């Protein structure tokens, strides 16, 4: 398989966001002349509001409103000066009140994003290291990445994985002064907690470990003086901890707060903290509202508010327990996540709830993996018991309907989140489609297969027999692959869909850019399987081209695709695969919408190149039909060198030649970390030599007739398609003898000589192939992962 292009992350997010925007559940505008927190106006409807982050409802408290109004009247809408020079007169009181809440010095910041950008580069020194929980908020990750410019290592561990964290601490302990672990106190999607007590114990075991918590979602609704979840777990903030809270969200005002018990570090951050120095300060209204809120936090009233919210949370939890709803994490926070699995089920479910009178949030990629889409519900003091009960009743009724309408079932939802189902009852649409699933091509009808799938590449019947034989019973596990052949028929036994699937070990960075691969390959010197995963894919690592046949005129083609998705999910689970990859697609709108709705994200692959040959066309005729520029290129860079080279086409090789071509292939593989795959075994090249469908276009030079300097490994598909699958090069001759360009030309010449109809030139080097007359097509892959850890870690390494 050719190297996946380094995909623009924003393009991927834009793809995923397009559907929910079109469905009317993202990028909405609230409506109405006023807002009370209990309801929200959306699309001409007044909906009960279950999407707020103002859990205590303080943003509607008259004391905060009056303070803000008074501040505007006295000081204006803003105080346009840098806080480094002079602060708004109201700032001193706010800092005093918030410091009293925490019993530690604080720094007030404009918001948490700017706060992290100011604090992290100040607190973390060049001799330190950073380890991120992979679900820590984007604002923390973004600020931490800035430190890579100072050569500070920024690493990542799976969510709340203390064993993995301890291993990372040990790996940095001899080379780094401090090791900063950065996490959220409460995670905003699932409402789950950081293991704060265990992390504190780990910091006592490893004094180098420093803890950095973003607790903005734990603020106010829990903890003494409403100081948040982290403080409720540790009581006292030690000097090896930094804590971020918020003055917005539950606090009811605006801004964020850093709490730091280390006096020296506190002074350094406050004196000069990047955006803390150069950004505008909070508006007078925000400062005054925050001060009013802090005064409430310093009285026993905050305990009453917390208890009032807790009663609502407990009530919602009790109602959920009595249902079959897939609650992803059971906890006592105000944040709940009901899984829907596929995005299209989530869109359907949310629209149903909105039509029923409830506003909830969509939890989706990149905040969660695409296949872990769901409904994010927040409980606040605005919500009354009767509407909480009504929401649960509506979800119980509408989730099965959404599941049925989107052709899935509850079992798939539970499996997507690794939850134990509460019942064995399944809700799914009946299907008259029948699937034939085999694990060897030998059990498939040869004529049917070659007609449906075997028209291109090495995926005809004989080609797949060759691949099965080659990639089995090998010494290294990465060279042993499993296969599944799927044909889905209608009630009349007519094929609607057919494909080949494989499961094998991939290097995770095969989908990443060169920088990430270089870093990872260094670690693979001691651990060959570092950052590798078992992947279930259309086709296999040795095939390119169209792996999926589908009868586009069949009325049940969508049902067949849905059935294939369910089959793949079952195989993914039984094969312990971590990722599903659907490969080599054109920009097909129907496929695109279907795959996005099924929980895949799209990435762009290298362009694919193909040549369609005319009947009885000679190589001379072919060259004469090239463009003027291409003919000039041919004469200058190819024809001029042809007589200096020995060109031969061999059907088989001796042992010495097999070793040579294997080494030439290895030269190309090692020279291109962009195509970062495991090495193919020597047996592949031996089997090619013994198989009548393979041949070798060989280049030598007269002065060294036994020294091969270039080779193209070519497969003869029974559909009269010629397939140059691999190339091998001696790089010392690449520029002096133009060996790669010569191999491309000789491949075309050979295909014409044996009267083939097509040449599948495959991916990469599309510029060179286009110059020799190839048609270039954009290709895309669709990826579905069990979690976002690998994608986020690769993004961290790429930055």
Describe, in plain words, how this protein is organized in 3D.
With 799 residues, this protein is of the alpha+beta class. The chain has four domains: 42-54 and 303-416, Aspartate Aminotransferase, domain 1; 62-297, Aspartate Aminotransferase, domain 2 (3-Layer(aba) Sandwich); 434-606 and 783-798, Aminopeptidase (3-Layer(aba) Sandwich), CATH 3.40.630.30; 609-781, Gcn5-related N-acetyltransferase (GNAT) (Aminopeptidase, 3-Layer(aba) Sandwich), CATH 3.40.630. Strands 14, 15, 16, 17, 18, 19, 20, 21, 22, 23, 24, 25 and 26 form a 13-stranded mixed β-sheet that branches. A seven-stranded mixed β-sheet has the order 3-9-8-7-6-4-5, with helices on both faces. The longest helix has 21 residues, at 301-321.
List the defining traits of the structure above:
799 residues; alpha+beta; Aspartate Aminotransferase, domain 1; Aspartate Aminotransferase, domain 2; Aminopeptidase; 4 domains; 13-stranded mixed sheet; seven-stranded mixed sheet; 28 helices; disordered N terminus; 7-keto-8-aminopelargonate synthetase-like enzyme; PyrdxlP-dep_Trfase_major; transferase; PyrdxlP-dep_Trfase_small
